[in-house]
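Suppose you are handed a protein chain with no further information: no name, no annotation, nothing but its sequence. What can you learn? This example shows the usual starting point.
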Amino acid sequence: MTADEALIEVRDVHRTFYQGEIEVRALRGVDLKVAPGEFTSLAGPSGSGKTTLLNQIGCLDRPTKGQVFVDGTEVSAFNKTEAAQFRLNKIGFVFQAYNLIPVLSAYENAEFVMLLEGVDAKERKRRVESLLSEVGLEGMFDRRPHELSGGQQQRVAVVRALAGRPAVVLADEPTANLDSKTSAELLDLMAELNREHDVTFLFSSHDPDVLERSRRVVRMDSGKIVADERKGEE
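A reasonable first move is to predict its three-dimensional structure. Written in structure tokens, the prediction is:
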């Protein structure tokens, strides 16, 4: 894969921070390229650096050293305002805690990013109704998060991430709060969305089900990439 083919490129990224007087080297010279349309997981034990790396790619943090490019733009050079605007337009997020707004319905949560983007009402309605129906939530548009199961809430979060048509969806431990059956159903859904909509997914997870379904697993330990495993297409 060349630099021109990479949707995500991480070049010699280091991230160091301090806990009191203790220096923590969370990332130690990470290099990574992810092509458009990949369904890839960052795997490793707690403290391996996978979430820290995801945060660099998602413009939630900046490296101490090195460069990060997303969709041809160097995001590691952004200030806070530029980072926020880029996240809004280019990156979808799915978190383990769902992060839905309690007072909004499933429909309103799903359209929230598009509201911020300034997408017109007719287009918002078309995208949200289509995606919510596609993920099995037809008839539940008006339900608040507390009226939905954990799996249903995460499906709304996935729709919210996709509705803005981002360049990449970053999913940080998206199955951590789900039982095994619901987790498997969600992962199958995201794999289907990846195939049908050509959406690039990058996970941070140590869930065996996530790693089993990923077509590429990048393994991390002590802030470094220690293995990069690609699976043959079925």
